Amino acid sequence: MQWLLPRLNHFSAQCPGVDLRINISHELVDFERDQVDVAVLHGLGTYPGLCSEKLLDEPLIVVASPSLLASLPALKSANDLRHCSLLHDEDRNDWKVWAALFKATSVTHDKGPVFTGNGVMDAVLAGRGVALLRESFIRKELQEGKLVSVLIKKLKVNFAYYLVYPRSARKQAELESFRTWAIAESRRG
């Protein structure tokens, strides 16, 4: 939603006749039962019987609020994150992989609150800790100085965001309009 919502005005201007209904859920969609034409799913991109096109797969970056950074010693190395509360999005795996990759042996990656939805974004903005987020999701906050990229250590993850839909849906002009627009937007970053 952090990526999609700020861009929807562009889609509405480009395709004013397409009426969108957006449902935010962590449940796997059943296209027939739920009467859904298209979904944006976070995963590995393998959805049997469905078309799947990658939208976003950029690496995760470490971010914090300026107020939190002002209260900490300078963060110059990966191990310096031991002074921070790690904020987790969905589970604790991303920080575990990040700590191993950058040899942050003094960072306790299995502690800190776990959030769902946009909770991790709200927590990092409130100065509750540092988070691993995708730059395209927080571009506005970075530009406005509400968040700051910490260190330059990015984590490439296997999970990405995919546009997923039944093969038969490609015949629908509205879906094709949304599909074409979403893929073009994802290429812009």
Molecular structure report:
This is LysR substrate-binding domain-containing protein. Residues 2-184 form the LysR substrate-binding domain. With 189 residues, the chain is α/β, with parallel strands linked by helices. It has two domains: 5-55 and 158-188, 3-Layer(aba) Sandwich (D-Maltodextrin-Binding Protein, domain 2), CATH 3.40.190.10; 60-149, Periplasmic binding protein-like II (D-Maltodextrin-Binding Protein, domain 2, 3-Layer(aba) Sandwich). Helices cover 30% and strands 20% of the residues. It contains seven helices and eight strands; from the N terminus they run H-H-E-E-E-H-E-H-E-H-E-H-E-E-H. Strands 5-4-6-3-7 form a five-stranded mixed beta sheet, with helices on both faces. Strands 1-8-2 form a three-stranded antiparallel beta sheet, with helices on one face. Helix 4 (93-101) links the parallel strand 4 (86-89) and strand 5.
